Amino acid sequence: MPEETPENVDVLVVGGGPAGLTAAIYTARAALNVMVLEGEPSSTSDQPGGQLMLTTDVENYPGFPEGVTGPQLIADLREQATKFGSRLVQGKAVSVQLTQPPFRVEVSSDIGKVIARSVIVATGSRTRMLGLPREDHLVGRGVSTCATCDGFFFRDRDIAVVGGGDSALEEALFLSRFARTVTIIHRRDELRASKILQHRMEREPKISMRWNTVIDELFGKQQLAGLRLRDIRTGALDVLPVTGLFLAIGHSPNTAVFEEHLKLDADGYIVTERGTSTSVPGVFACGDVQDPVYRQAITSAGSGCMAALDAERWLGDSDHDLAFEPAASTALTPGSV
């Protein structure tokens, strides 16, 4: 059976969240041939639209004074990207060859293989979840992964934060501006967070600690109504009546398929220099896959713009005027995004 003919594009954007779609808007508007791998609807780590698809109301994205839902914001970005000629494909990169341009990417869809003159990685990161029943269902219904995004909606409520690192204490301190009470739930008897954050937390009267405690169950069918807690030393159970739970147990960047090809930091995030350039010339990265700090839709969109401009300039350089020649027979490295 003859091998399928790869599709040729100027720019392959891997990821369909705000970073990837913004990159697609800019590169397509520059008259480049652009394909976007949006992800797969059945995947929890790289679904089309990214984490915004799990966000109900977004009130801090510029240009929407009345707010906008996460899915609607993604729908608007998709429409704008296709308006300028971007081709959106539901699929993910399952293996790549990034030895030299043009690059080869195998896609988990009928597309098969793609040859790209440049690649923009915008695969994002995924929030580490507790793995409890109804947890996914209650995201956006009392369960949140972003205090900056959702804290305002919990004014004068009793809420909880799970975690013990800097992120958990930063979330709790931020939420104390709005909430009536904030309970930090931590499975150990000491915090990993920096001492300065611990001192600030101790001085905040709204914040209390539940040490050596884990969450066994979430209550509420359509809206979070409380938590069943278990003391890991004694096994004792009790109920914490809260209407908000913020998960702050870390994020994992979606970089598995790129780990043998691009320079990553100790936590698995893609290292970028001089804007959005990666360790491989012609491959750029933007959004949460290279940003472990801010993780906001607007910063992702901004870095998507940067990656698009970097890719456009790189392609415009006469030294990189690449014809679509068959790539060297380098074995593709399997993985998943």
TrEMBL record:
Cofactor info, note text: Binds 1 FAD per subunit.
Top enzyme category: oxidoreductase
Alphabetically ordered keywords of this record: Disulfide bond, FAD, Flavoprotein, NADP, Oxidoreductase, Redox-active center
EC number, UniProt record: 1.8.1.9
NCBIfam families: TRX_reduct (TIGR01292)
Similarity section: Belongs to the class-II pyridine nucleotide-disulfide oxidoreductase family.
Protein's recorded name: Thioredoxin reductase
GO process annotations (BP): removal of superoxide radicals
Subunit structure: Homodimer.
GO molecular function: thioredoxin-disulfide reductase (NADPH) activity
Cofactor needs: FAD
Catalysed reactions, semicolon-separated: [thioredoxin]-dithiol + NADP(+) = [thioredoxin]-disulfide + NADPH + H(+)
Organism, scientific name: Saccharopolyspora spinosa
GO CC, alphabetical: cytoplasm
Source organism superkingdom: Bacteria
All copies of domain FAD/NAD(P)-binding, residue ranges: 10-303
